[in-house]
Amino acid sequence: MRCAKVSALLIGIFAFASAVHAMDIKRVDHTLILSGIVVQPDLDRIKKEFAKAPTITHVVLRNSMGGNSWTGYRLGELFREKGVTTAVSGHCVSSCSRLFLGGKTRMFSDDYPSSLTYVGFHGHYDFDKLNRAAVEKDDLAGWTLKFTDHKLDPKLMRRWVDIERRAGDMRFYPPAAAKRFGQVVMLCQGTESLRPQQCEKIATNAFAHGIVTTPETYSSPDALTLPYKLRATRYPTTAFATLTQADRLPARSPAAQRDFGLFTNAALPRAFAVTASGVAWGWSANSAKSDEQALNACRIMAARKNRNAPCVLYAVDERVVYGRP
Question: pLDDT per residue over 85-97, tens digit each?
């Protein structure tokens, strides 16, 4: 009797843990939006969604670092069987990449900035170390070639299959990310302190290897509710300058130029504030409140210099917003 109670308790704990860590599923008309970790029960949950009306035509994969490898293969096969379009919204890595390759049509979305939008591929891992036996058993190479419609260069794929650390991956970004990174495909070993900037840059693109099937971008039906879209609406791009035109910054001092250089390499969300005279400036990164923090830093510098000059935002995320009415 005691063993039965213990078994029931363990089953309950497992079911609870699976529910807590399962993918978040959201439906908007014909679109299924999936985010978070991939676990085995997700296969049945998502099959049930396909059995409901209206018919699912698009699957959006949003900010998932992957999870259960077996489930990733099966969901990718399900999506190909259903003939859906898959779209990357933010990052889609590891097992999630197989969900993405399942799409008959595969696209990047514009839900997030291009530098945060990528599909990441690597091998199978146990305790952070490459499990070559699992790679061969699951035929990762053969499956991936098939689901990229045999457009993928096997030598390129071999490089990501052989990455030793789970933290490493080969990342495919949309074309617009080249403005920030120089290239749109990066091989990261997982040992870099700054990724993908310190990763190996590879001169190719996702379309050339069948990772995506079209250069067009997709806008998710809930895109306008996402944080970066809200920031873009609140702080629209102006024609004053681009981020690469550092000479347009009102603050021309070497210290200001140095800080602006740090800003342009910093993590999003980020913001840079300045006074029109250029006497004061401030910036913040990797914070949802970076706009407020940048303005406060600028105001503190202006007060320290005994200047009563108002601070305004010069750049937000990857956009120059200076000169707004």
Answer: 999 999 999 999 9
| Gap between the Cα atoms of 250 and 210, Å rounded | 44
CA-CA distance, 132 to 126, in Å (whole number)?
A: 10
> Which of 157, 203, 167, 159 lies closest to 184 in space, CA to CA?
203
Distance of alpha carbon 274 from alpha carbon 294, whole angstroms: 9
Q: How far apart are CA 18 and CA 212, in angstroms?
A: 31
Residue 306 pLDDT class (50, 70, 90 cuts): confident
Q: What is the torsional sign of CA 121, 127, 128, 131?
A: negative
Please choose, from the candidates 93, 149, 90, 142, the residue with its C-alpha nearest in 3D space to the C-alpha of residue 121.
Answer: 93
The model's pLDDT over 98-130, given as tens digits with 9 standing for 90+, comes to 999 999 999 999 999 999 999 999 999 998 899
Q: Quick check: helix, strand or coil at residue 117? A: coil
Rounded Cα distance, 187 and 277, in Å: 43
Answer with the residue of higher pLDDT: 146 or 4. 146
Secondary structure of residue 28 in the 3-state scheme: strand
Q: Give the pair of three-digit tokens for residue 119.
A: 């599909």
Q: Is the pLDDT of residue 143 over 70?
A: yes
User: In angstroms, rounded to a whole number, what is the distance separating the alpha carbons of residues 27 and 29?
Assistant: 6
pTM (two decimals): 0.89
Structural domains of the chain ordered from first start: 18-223 (3.90.226.10), 235-320 (no CATH)
**What token pair was written down for 18?**
């699976």
